[in-house]
Write a structure and sequence with these properties.
alpha+beta; Arc Repressor Mutant, subunit A; D-Maltodextrin-Binding Protein, domain 2; 7-stranded mixed β-sheet; 3-stranded mixed β-sheet; 10 helices; 15 strands
Length: about 300
Amino acid sequence: MLLEDLQVVLKVAEFRSITKAAAHLDMRMATASAALKRAEAALGAELFIRTTRKIRLSSAGERYLPECEKALSLLAQAKQAMHGSEGKVEGEVRLSLSSDLGRNVVMPWLDEFMEAHPSISLKVTVSDSTIDFYRDSVDMALRYGPPKDSNLYGFKICNVPGVLCATQGYLEQRGTPAHPQDLATHNGLFYQLHDVIYDVWGFTREGEEHTVKMQGNRASNDGDLVRRWCVAGKGVAVKSCLDMHADLLAGRVVNILPHFTPRTSELWLICPSRQSITPAMRLLRDAFKIKSASMLEQLAFGGFVHTDGLES
């Protein structure tokens, strides 16, 4: 079976269309269709069920496609390892980023990374949705929190303290809280995921837990929008200190209740498996660690986060 035929099979599975797969691979539809038929003939099974209106994986295809993808990934790793031993790392990395961190923090990191490694190409998707590595055709996902699926593999990048933020103008109008319970009279800006609104906020001081049920008139499943509302003076928000890094340093928002610590999360770079990791992906992991450590040092120096919360 030809390697090129397997690549066609994977693209047809990704797009659920021979026409779209052919266009993506820059080949004629007849060529792609012939490749698909050759692959099915070699396997002795139909990988797709075709109708006049759509195409979908057969039960044989559902079993075969993940193994096919692993095989191609191993071949790509072998090629990259060969180049890596010669001092050159190349290849494509398909990366998923969360909305706020991705757009406002990581994009400049990626620009520097690609300047330093011009033989590496990136495909980036930006979304706060949960990633399905096979369905979404993603190699790595940079997310807050460790992998929830034991079948996945991840690299911890750093601890990320949360910060309670608002603009000075908002606080002048509504008053500056002295205790978490004072937040009950303030307008909360909430993150929402799968119809669940995160409006119960927890804080810790000297080992004592404080919880407050917030009220608010704005919620979004896009973390970037929550940050923009906060910077616009629409209320108070608990956000990752990395997301708020530039706004805190520029004085666009202030850190409220600095002696009460909101939840601390972790930044992880998650992969579908340990075997899927390539030299290019390891370089990207190292770059993320260096950049995030630098940002956290700046925030600690400015007094926005406590250094004890940065320890792994």
